[in-house]
Amino acid sequence: MIFLKLWERYNAYSANVVSEILEGHFDCPSFNFVLAVAEDFAIKNPKGIIAEIQKLIPRWSEIATPLGVPKNIVEKIAQDLVQL
Length: 84
What we know:
This protein is mainly alpha-helical.
């Protein structure tokens, strides 16, 4: 039952985000949007997690390349990474 509720919430978020992207109203999630999702999924310390991830953005290529991520994928993802 809990899984079903989480799945329904996830689908609702996904549908809203996809709709916004397709309509051209959604470039990237806001900090508050990410915090709201974290709260809905009971993620503890979301601000700390976001901060840690944000610190790694400049090192994305350095981290991904040794893991075997193809160069074109590394470059595409690097273009899409944003600071919240």
